[in-house]
Amino acid sequence: MSKDVINAANVSLDVCSIIICLIIAFSISYFKKKDESAKWFLFTNIAAIFYGITDIFMWISEGTDAAWKLVALPLSSFLYYFTGIFIIYFYIGYVIRYYQKDTKINKGYSYFSLGISILYMILLILTPFLGIYYTIAPDNTYHRGSWFMILVGIEVVLYLEALFLILKYHKNVQNLENIGFASFIFFPFISHIIQIANFGVALISIGLAISFLIIFINLNQKMNQELEISNKLYNEKRIQTLEHQKNSVYYFTNLIENRKLESGVHEMRVTNMVKVFADACARKGIYRDVLSEKYIELLVDAIPFHDIGKIYIPDYILNKPGKLTEEEFITIQTHAENGAKIVSDILPLTNNRDQVRLTAQICRSHHERWNGKGYPEHLREKDIPLGARIMAIVDVFEALVNYRCYKNPSSYDEAFDIIKKGAGVEFDPVLVEEFLAIKDKIIEENEKYKDNSIEGL
């Protein structure tokens, strides 16, 4: 086989290894979360890319037929060995930091690999003058140096250190990860032995690339597992935070509405009833164009704010035991518009636009009536936002069956009868029909907080 064919084959192998390492390096760079070990593996692949590039230049720059070759061969030869030691050094750093995630690693291993690498570099710097690792012949051809085996011995020592670390700490990680680590010992080392025995054959680069590909597959799997765990913990924490926020809203809005700590859990009750009611409507396909899973989620989050505008209503009106005067009733009505304004001013700080819009609609329109005789805008029928129509039924029902300072609770039968009579007058008749169909579930939700306590919020 001619030298040109061998050179072409070697260049092709180097190109393949460069492409593999480039893909791995870019993939690691785009990891959402990179720990120290991943960064060191990234450095290893970057070093391997330059290693492959310098190897290509070594193959194509031999000879004296072009002036650039006289500079390219000595320079590429030096950089080839320069990047070669960094591959092993970075790899050992990667192994140490990978195992450090689960156990404490003696710093002596890092110092040892650094010391051996420095010795290697000193001998490399002397090589152009003493021919230790390689020599460049007068005809501008590369040859191994008289002390080439020193280089091999240093690399073997570093390989053995990596192998020792794997054997010592392999129980701390999964078997597939250890196989990935061991592949770096197997493929490049075996390739190195073959290359030493068959001068002119370049297998180290492709051996490195194969081992890095195996390691990357395992690393990617590990990172995905860790990301899933992180996402799970984040979601659990987020759910806890949202629950605390909702509980705070329930407490705050109850306090605003009634100005009494013992006033009850109106917001909690109506929120749970609305959730049950909306879900039942969605299952039946009622208003399917609006009642999506996302809409119901936004609706449930909006309900606790429906009476927030009552913060502007004087205590003597909110807590008046008797019938309100016309002037007092007009004052009460202002809470709808005021609530929508408060929501529009405050919620955009922490909520998305859809949430703000729906919450403002609930605040403004939950006292609108199907026949147009509600307030504040006297909207009729389907001009009333669907969420407000749902809330109107639940709000009236909850007020009927629970104690208020101005009335004693009605029985469930009386309350359902009032809702039924309000169909097509005060309330959306389609919604009323479904509300009456789930009486037991609505009663169950109300009974959960029938004691008017705020415990467990």
Report on this structure:
- This protein has helices at 3-29, 36-60, 67-100, 108-130, 148-169, 175-197, 204-258, 266-284, 293-302, 315-318, 326-346, 353-365, 386-401, 412-421, 429-437, 439-447; strands spanning 134-136, 142-144.
- It is mainly α.
- The protein has a two-stranded antiparallel ribbon with strand order 1-2.
- Strand 1 and strand 2 (142-144) form a beta hairpin.
- Helix 8 runs antiparallel to helix 9 and helix 12 (353-365) crosses helix 13.
- The chain starts with a helix and ends in a 10-residue tail after the last helix.
- The model is unreliable at 260-264 and 452-457 (pLDDT under 50).
Tags for this entry?
two-stranded antiparallel sheet; mainly alpha; disordered C terminus; 457 residues; 16 helices
